[in-house]
Structure formats: C-alpha cells, structure tokens
Amino acid sequence: MTDITEREKRIQIRKEFFSRVRRAVIKVGTGVLTHNKGLNIPVLRRLAREVSELISRGCQVVVVSSGAIACGMRKMDMKERPADIPHKQAVAALGQSRLMLEYEKAFSPYKKKVAQILLTRDDLCNRRRYLNARNTLNVLLGWQIVPIINENDTVVVDELKFGDNDNLSAMITNLVDAQMLISLTDIDGLYDKDPRVHKDAKLVPLVRKIDRSIERAASGIPSGLGTGGMSSKVRTAKKVTTSGIPMLVASGLKPNILKQLFEGKDVGTLFVPGKQKMTSRKCWIAFTLKARGAIKVDGGAVTAICKHGKSLLPIGIMDVEGDFRVGDMVRCLDPDGVAFAKGLVNYSASDTRKVMGLKTREIEKKLLYKQYDEVIHRDNLVVLDTDDTAGLQ
After folding, report:
1. What backbone torsions phi and psi does residue 194 show, to the nearest 5 degrees?
2. Between 156 and 51, the higher pLDDT residue
3. Can 2-282 and 291-392 be said to share one CATH topology?
4. Cα dist. 66→75, 87, 332 in Å?
5. Given this model, what pLDDT does residue 1 score?
6. Residue 236 predicted with pLDDT over 60
7. Looking at the domain covering 2-282, what would its CATH class be?
8. pLDDT over 70 at 158, yes or no
9. DSSP structure class, residue 131
10. What is the pLDDT of residues 180-225, one digit of tens each?
11. Which of 63, 155, 200, 318 lies 20 to 30 Å from 174, alpha-carbon distance?
C-alpha cells in the first residue's frame, strides 16, 4: 500500500510541474539519435512528431541536439571519436549539415520549420550577445519554429567550450526562461547503479535533493559515443533546480515518451527544483560565466552575505586569487576555502588586493579613486548551496 501511495504522490508532483510548462527545452543525446549504422532516422522522425504535437498543444519547444560528431564519424566510416581538435572539428562540420537536413525532413510532414543555432560559451558569457540570442530565440518560438541548438564544434576552442550539451542545455533553459528541461538519453533515467551491467539496478524516480549518494550513483553510469554520462546530467540538474526549474531524465528510445511525460506518467527521473526561483541575471552569473579568480573572505562577511543579503566590502576580504578585471565573475570563498557565492567584481584583482581589509572610506586614499563602496554589490552576488557546491564550481 505504501508503494502505491508513494507512486501516486510522484504522479501528482509530475502533473503539477508539467501543467505549468508553456516552454520546454528538450536535450536529445547522441545515444538516442545514432546507432551503429549512423543516424537513427526512425527515432528522429518519431521525436519530430512528438515535438510537433506538443507545439500544437501550445507548448513552445527548443531542442538542444547532440549527434553532429557521431554523424560525421559515420559519414567518414570512423570507428573511434577523433582525439585531436582539428579532426574533431572537421568531423563536426561534416556531420552538422547532415543532422540539420534530417531534422528539416523529419519536421516537414507536420508543417514545422526548424532553425539552426550554433553557439560557443563566449556567445553567452557576453551579456549583450546573451540578450541578443534570447531575443532571436523568442522571435523564432513566437513564429512556432523549432530552434535546433548545438555547440559550434567547428570553431570552438577549449576555453570557450560548454563542456558538453548537458551543460549547454542548462544554460539554454535559463536563457529562454523555460519551465522544464527534459534530457532524453538511451536509458530510462537515473539508476542506483549501471543497469547495462547490473540486472538488479533500480530506477530512482524522484530526486528532491542532489546529495553525495546521487552523485555516486550517477558516476557509475558512463556514456557511449557522446561526451556526457549520467554524472553530467546530474550536474546539469543541480544547476537548473538551483535556479528553480525542474529537470526530467528519460529514455528517448521509448515511443511517445514526451506524451507520457506531459501526462504525468511515472517514467524517468524527475529532479525537483528549489522553492525560490533565481532571476535570469543571477542565473547568468552563476551558471554561464566562467570564474576568473576567487576572493577569500572572513566569517563575518560570509554571514553578512548569506544571512543578511549584504554586499561584499573590502574590510571582509582576506585573500585574492587570480588576475581578474573589472566586471569579471569570481568565486567567493569562506575561511576554509569553500565556495559559497559567485559575483561580478567592481575592482580588478590588483586593486582588490590593495584595498582588502580596509574600511570603505579608506578606498580612495589607497587607490586615488573610488568608483564603488562594494567590491561586489549584492545585486551581482549569487549565494550557492553551501551544503554541497560540488556541481556548481
């Protein structure tokens, strides 16, 4: 009786979340889109039908699609993923055109147009370009066009990489202010161990908090041709749920999977979000920008920022790491070196070192100028989950 009750509770939670979804990001993994003979055309066409049905019901959909490198590998008859960057980028260029052609053909019977958007992390780290990308996506969605987003593997360099499309999907979810991120993979969801190896593996249907046990379970479930395994999906879930958005991981190989999810069926793994939703700007600071350094602060500053929502003043600073510039994002570390916040700095690293430990009124005397009282203003500060910040670094 208890199991039935718990299942009913899960279904109720799912129905509540999906009833609010007016805009969704659907990430489709390489393991879903490809098989040993190349692109899995029947699966792609089925997903196009399911996405088209969602759009017809009034839900706007953004697709984050993997598969370009895998498509290029098949086209070149490669057995292993290229290791060096030039070959990887060439294969991506070859595969991306094929991937988009098949998407266009798959959506055509449902009178739906698709638009290709290729991004690097630098596109989203620049606030102006970030807002331009958002405006473009809003126009496309208003036209009922399906944006197909992928990392621009052909030109990206390591320092501008998203890491994988799981991370990209988290950034896109915040960019378009979606109410749900759905990650379609080649297994049914998060298991307590790898179901492809252990027959007694159990599906975890609901995750209320991502703790060490969840991270350990995910670390044992690798990926195939793609770059992200289940660990990557859990890190992504941590980002979107921290910003107040639910995420669901399910098998994209199951027929009518999107219909089942939107009906609240108990399939896949639902990651429940925190109660408080971050503003779009704070999501951008916390999850899109790369940290250019760190500022270690004393216990008083930690309390002022975390408990009272205060700005970071020079007097609370103990140490400065890195060589950041004005406007860069840095991590704020407590006295033990644990990151508890991220923020945009008003002073460069060299100037911050000069004023650390000083009172606000002493800034101008030390620097011969004073633009701000705060090293980081509270409007540009994001407090992290101090219970476990591993997935947010």
Report:
1. -65, 115
2. 51
3. no
4. 16, 17, 34
5. 45
6. yes
7. alpha beta
8. no
9. H
10. 999 999 989 999 888 878 888 899 999 998 888 888 888 766 655 4
11. 155
Q: What percent of the chain has pLDDT over 70?
A: 92
Is residue 190 within 8 Å of 207, Cβ to Cβ? yes
Q: What is the spatial distance between Cα 307 and Cα 300, in angstroms, rounded to a whole number? A: 10
Provide the residue type at 264 as one letter.
G
- Phi, psi values for residue 51, rounded to 5°: -65, -40
3-class DSSP assignment, residue 23: strand
Domain chopping of the chain, boundaries: 2-282, 291-392
Which residue type sits at 229? G
- Report pLDDT for 160: 46
Phi, psi of 286 (to 5 degrees): -75, -40
Output the furthest CA–CA distance in the chain (Å, rounded): 72
Pick from 66, 87, 34: which is nearest to 151 by CA? 66
Q: Please provide the average confidence, as pLDDT, over all residues in the chain.
A: 89
Measured CA to CA, the distance from residue 46 to residue 43 in angstroms comes to 5
Please state, in angstroms and rounded to a whole number, the distance separating the CA atoms of residues 324 and 310.
Answer: 22
The CATH code of the domain at 291-392 is: 2.30.130.10
The number of beta carbons lying within 10 Å of the beta carbon of residue 129 is: 14
Q: Give 260's Cβ-side CA count (13 Å radius).
A: 18
Which amino acid is it at 74? R
Measured distance CA(238)–CA(215) in Å, rounded: 10
- 206-207 and 293-297 strand pairing: unpaired
The pLDDT of residue 299 is above 50: yes
